[in-house]
Design brief:
It contains 15 helices and no strands. With 303 residues, the chain is mainly α. The chain folds into 2 domains: 110 residues, Orthogonal Bundle (Farnesyl Diphosphate Synthase), CATH 1.10.600; 183 residues, Farnesyl Diphosphate Synthase. It starts with 15 loop residues before the first helix and ends in a 19-residue tail after the last helix.
């Protein structure tokens, strides 16, 4: 049962400082120092919440306690919305909710995404994978635009494409790790089309079928991330820098995947600071960092 601080007693939550420290290992800069203090504080609050929710959904032991822990997250989020949260990360989020103000639905969607992950560990079609990104990734971009007060319908659409591209890129980087914990994000229809088996995902190095499948998904991710350039062009300087940094991290990670011959199992495909900077500058000045095809907002490419 919950203790007076409302935290679940049968699980150990990561310390707030440890959660925020993980920002340094992300593909993208979470809160650029070039941004204003207010924006940085709110972006870090959003990151801390999103990272904690993912950690609870993925790492809480025993696994059987994750659903209960996510219910606590759900309740603590609602307390944050009215300024009565206890957990430090939710206290910070509560300030952002009040000061921006942040929309609640994207925050609730991030919790729902992790609740769904407790029930769904594989996807039959690519469209189903895109549907999962609508809950697990796209809300983050919507919250970022809200922080800067620039959320319009066309920007939200492009932001969704960028966030989905970032999510697919992370799935490619984590193929082996995810498979070992029972999660497969590469759609079954695509695995079948390329002749890639579940055993291929657990091997020490990527097989040729898996490499070809990863290359196909990387192409789709680049197409989606191409939405960052027109999105950036529509924004004032500070949000433009933030969006450029996010998208640049994904593009640099895709560069690393390509440089590894799409062997995401045998090589740690991490973006380099140089490649992130190159892509960020190109996006910030309004150039396309990736040659995405027409229809970049869907990420659909020929087989």
């Amino acid at each position: 049962m919950p203790d007076p601080s409302h935290a679940p007693t049968n699980v150990v939550l990561p310390p707030p400082d440890a959660v925020l420290a993980r920002a340094r290992s992300e593909n993208f800069p979470v809160a650029l120092r070039l941004l204003g203090e207010r924006e940085r504080r709110h972006l870090l609050a959003i990151y801390g919440f999103a990272r904690l929710v993912d950690d609870v959904g993925d790492e809480v032991e025993p696994a059987s306690a994750r659903s209960q822990a996510l219910h606590w997250v759900e309740d603590e989020l609602e307390r944050a919305a009215v300024g009565s949260a206890d957990h430090p990360l939710f206290v910070a989020l509560g300030r952002a909710i009040a000061e921006v103000p942040l929309p609640m639905q994207p925050l609730r969607d991030l919790v729902a995404a992790n609740q769904l992950e407790q029930l769904v560990s594989r996807y039959r079609t690519y469209d189903q994978l895109l549907g999962s990104c609508e809950l697990s990734a796209n809300p983050v971009g919507r919250l970022v635009l809200a922080v800067f007060g620039v959320a319009t319908a066309d920007r939200l659409e492009r932001s969704d494409a960028v966030c989905t591209g970032l999510q697919i890129t992370e799935h490619l980087q984590d193929v082996g790790e995810d498979a070992r914990r029972g999660h497969v994000y590469l759609a079954a229809e695509d695995r079948d089309r390329f002749g890639c088996t579940t055993d291929d995902l657990l091997a020490p190095r990527a097989s040729e079928p898996l490499r070809r499948l990863v290359a196909s998904y990387a192409h789709r991710a680049r197409a989606l991330l191409a939405a960052a350039a027109p999105l950036a062009r529509s924004l004032p300087l500070r949000p433009r820098l933030a969006i450029a940094g996010f998208a640049a991290g994904g593009l640099a990670a895709l560069d690393a995947i390509e440089a590894a011959g799409h062997d995401v199992l045998g090589v740690a495909c991490r973006p380099t600071a140089r490649r992130v900077a190159v892509h960020a500058v190109r996006i910030a000045v309004g150039l396309r960092s990736a040659a995405g095809p027409a229809g970049a907002l869907t990420g659909r490419v020929p087989a």
